[in-house]
Amino acid sequence: MSEQDRYIPGVPCWIDTTQPDPRAAVAFYGDLFGWEFEDVMPPESPARYFIARIRGGDVAAVGSQPQGAPPAAVWNTYVWVADADETAAKVRAAGGRVLREPDDVGPWGRMAVFADPAGAVFCVWQAREHRGAAVVNEHASLNFNDLSTRDIDGARAFYGSVFGWELLEVGGGRMWALPGYGDFLEQRRPGMRENMAKMGAPERFEDVVASIRPIGDDQPDGISHWGVTFAVDDADAIAARAAELGGSVPVQPFDAPWVRMAVITDPQGATFTASKFVPENRSLGRSAGAAAGA
C-alpha cells in the first residue's frame, strides 16, 4: 500500500468551494485557515481553480462557479469511486439525478455531479493524478462531510444502493458507515482500532465516513444538502476571526458531544462548520448539537 492510497470507493475524498469571486474567497480562507494556494488553471482560462495546501499537502480548493450556475457560493463534497460512469448508472437506478454527466478533468481524474432523491447535491471523483485530500483531521482541514436531509429512510436506501453505506447509531444519533473502511484504515495505521477503543469511541466508529443530520419540521426553509466540517484548534477564535474578515456566524460556538463547534458563513455565502475536538464533552446529550445545520 502506497502513501497515495488514502481512500477506497465510497469514502469522501475531496472538497472545493465554488465562488462568484474566487480571488476574494482565497483571501478570506487564506487568512482564516493559513492555507497557501496555487492556481492550477492556464492563464488564458476564464475559470480559476486554486488548490489550498497545508505544509505542501492538498487540503481543499477554491474555484470559479460553473457557467450558468446560480450566483451562490457553496462547499462541494466529492466521494471516491472506481468508475464514475458506473456510479451514474447506480444513481439513476436508485432514483437520483445526474446533474453533470461523467467527464474528464484534464489528467487529474474523472468527475460527475449528482443529486439524491431529496435534492442534496454531491460529486464523485474517479482519481488519476489527483488523489484527494492529503491533509485531514487536523487544524484547518476537513474533518467531516455532513448530509442534512428531510428523508432519512430515503437517504438510507439511496446511499446504500450507490455506495454501500449503512446508517450507524452513535450516541443517540446516526452516521454513515462503510463496511470494510476500518480494515483499510487499520492497514494504513496499525493500532488505530486499539487507540479508538481507549478513547471510548463508539463501536464501529472506524467504519464511519460521513455524518447525517435530520432536517426537522421546525426548519421550514431547510433544504436537503451536503456540508463540510473543518477541524480547528479553537472554534471560538475561528468564529471571531471569520466575522472580522467579513463573514458571519449564524450559530455561535456551542458544546456538543465530543466537540465544540460553530457554524460560519463566508462573505460570499458558503456555509461550513468549524469543530474543535473536546474529549471531555463525550457524555453531552445529543440535544446539545441540534443547532448545527451547516
Characterise this structure.
With 294 residues, this protein is an alpha+beta fold. The protein is built from six helices and 16 strands. The protein has helices at 22-33, 84-93, 152-163, 181-188, 192-199, 235-244; strands at 12-19, 36-39, 49-54, 57-64, 74-80, 97-105, 109-115, 121-127, 141-149, 166-170, 173-177, 208-214, 225-231, 248-256, 259-265, 271-277. The protein is globular.
Helix content class: 10-25%
Q: What's the overall geometry?
A: globular
Give the strand line-up of the largest sheet: 2-3-4-1-5-8-7-6
H/I helix tally: 6
User: Would you list the SSEs in sequence order as H and E?
Assistant: EHEEEEHEEEEHEEHHEEHEEE
Oligomer: single chain
Class computed from helices, strands and strand pairing: alpha+beta
Strand residue content: 35-45%
The value of Rg in angstroms is 18 Å
How much is the average pLDDT? Answer: 91
Specify the biggest β-sheet. Answer: 8 strands, mixed
Strand segment count: 16
Q: Name the poorly predicted regions.
A: 286-294
Distance between the termini: 35 Å
Short description:
With 294 residues, the chain is of the alpha+beta class.
Task: Give me some keywords for this one.
single chain, 294 residues, alpha+beta, 6 helices
Give the topology, please.
Elements: E1 12-19, H1 22-33, E2 36-39, E3 49-54, E4 57-64, E5 74-80, H2 84-93, E6 97-105, E7 109-115, E8 121-127, E9 141-149, H3 152-163, E10 166-170, E11 173-177, H4 181-188, H5 192-199, E12 208-214, E13 225-231, H6 235-244, E14 248-256, E15 259-265, E16 271-277
Parallel strand pairs: 1-4, 5-8, 9-12, 13-16
Antiparallel strand pairs: 1-5, 2-3, 3-4, 6-7, 7-8, 9-13, 10-11, 11-12, 14-15, 15-16
